[in-house]
């Protein structure tokens, strides 16, 4: 199949001018103000949570764990002190949600995960006896003064939680709280600080300081030409047909790699769901490093996006020496052996660092033995000195490891750390770029020469908490534009050039600024049955997204294990239409769910829909489909809570998630509960095309949609067409509400 590609003009005469140029200082100033609003929104959400809820409430919401004791402390990676916390056996709470201790020492269910930033506080004076800490009085003052210490969770076991203390460099161990303690999840400030520093630097640069890449990214100079024949594979410096490293690359993927190699400053790789975006990036990285001797910085907005690439590069470690920066607690186990922290301990150069470490460990052990205050302080003073020495030696080791690497992998904000201060890279690659804030992308870009961005701007952008705040609304009203305007960037739109919302990503903005000729789209997808593929392809990807032959007819009944042929397992697309008003939604704004601050927002649930979900899952599992191959996805956290109550025990392996949380994932079968059903036909944030795109493109062989076509179909033109598509192409069912039970 030949795909029509946007023409990338050659020669300056034929090039259309960029839609708009950007004044860099005002761009940076606008970003700083938007970031400040966002940070304030985040901070006030946190403060609200902490002040309006007692530790007991926070524990019940999965955001805190109470009744802990410091069981041991030692020196962990990076010279940080690691403390292990266990339940206090003298308490009665063990096993209750968010409570540790009791005779079994078990810590009840909680939402604290490895990698979280947490505060460790003394339990005395925290007003934890069920009283609200926001209430006036002595207790509040006391707990505010006693902020405790901060740390990153490095290990979570059934009966213990370990923290690496400190987020910065100069942690004074002496303020480790004594006695019974509790820990609470905190906002991670590092990302915000790095973005702020970056934008401040950008704001101060003079025109003469701008790099050539920066100039093209702001439309101050046009893009340079791509050499003739480079994309077709016929020019001198391109990949010849015999030179591909992966044996499995389709024509679109090859074209994207050649395009990204040939583009002098910037290339966008647009990877719709399941099209092998990461696979393509791996080939690009190998071509750049192995065949062209380049040095790369590879980044993504999240640790998982970076680890995905690190994992897939690892088999080439001999030809591609790589190092992964970042806190080891946040890395996938399979990537740990390439992490800077681990290499700093295991490489030959590391021995000299280890000597100091042993000495520090001995000191740590002695602290717990002494009860004498003066002795303790003396030990802490020694430790401080040792830590300084440790850092100096470690610095030498680290810098030789980083310099010896051809590929450095880090999160976007991690790329702003001191390890990379004077490092030079030929190309910066940013994966999941449409999930990153523009300011985040600039962290590695201030000194870059060339950038390749990969992503899909038609899936969800990064979450913006301040999106509905007053300040952002006012800015939008001024421009007369809503969030919808960002869905498909219009090259002529002024605010694509000068964004007034953080939601406009660098990926969006560059498409607006330079037009589609700077991107190549991957069009063959290896995930969905053609009936699941058809609607998103037609609506969002100009009909270009095609299911590969290997997947286009795959059904649940063809799974490689025994599955019966039933009405459900032979259907790729099922629609339970709950229209008629018998499946009403319910607002839900009271109970916070475990593990999410966002879940405190007003949400919706629909119990009868949840009962229908259960019925459908029972039918799939009854036919032999493994629960691990099924996911239930819904846009509303309150509905997720209801579905969890109905399904969690009966189907332990099943995955239940929010649409936003499921981005980037896939399952053999997905049941999607749309929730909204009301006489006003309000659909709320279901109206966001990109959210629906994510929701409907997760399944491989079976998509079951449960929703009220009357309500949903009136939400937007897009939703109307989707409902019409389902009515025409899906296996339609009209469920009877009276036959359903909402009891677990
Ligand atoms: N050319 C190809 N031939 C056969 N299979 C392929 C090809 N390219 C990718 N795949 C398969 O498609 C699947 C998706 O690939 P990959 O994980 O690279 O996708 P992605 O686009 O990064 O995913 P996402 O949708 O999460 O962004 C993988 O199972 C991969 O093996």
TrEMBL record:
Keywords: ATP-binding, Cytoplasm, Helicase, Hydrolase, Nucleotide-binding, Nucleus. The keyword ATP-binding applies. Its EC number is 3.6.4.12. Residues 245-576 form the Helicase ATP-binding domain. One of its GO terms (cellular component) is nucleus. Its main location: cytoplasm. One of its GO terms (molecular function) is ATP binding. It is found in: Cytoplasm; Nucleus. The keyword DNA-binding does not apply. Residues 92-106 have a biased composition (Gly residues). It is an enzyme of class 3 (hydrolase). This is DNA helicase. It comes from Lineolata rhizophorae.
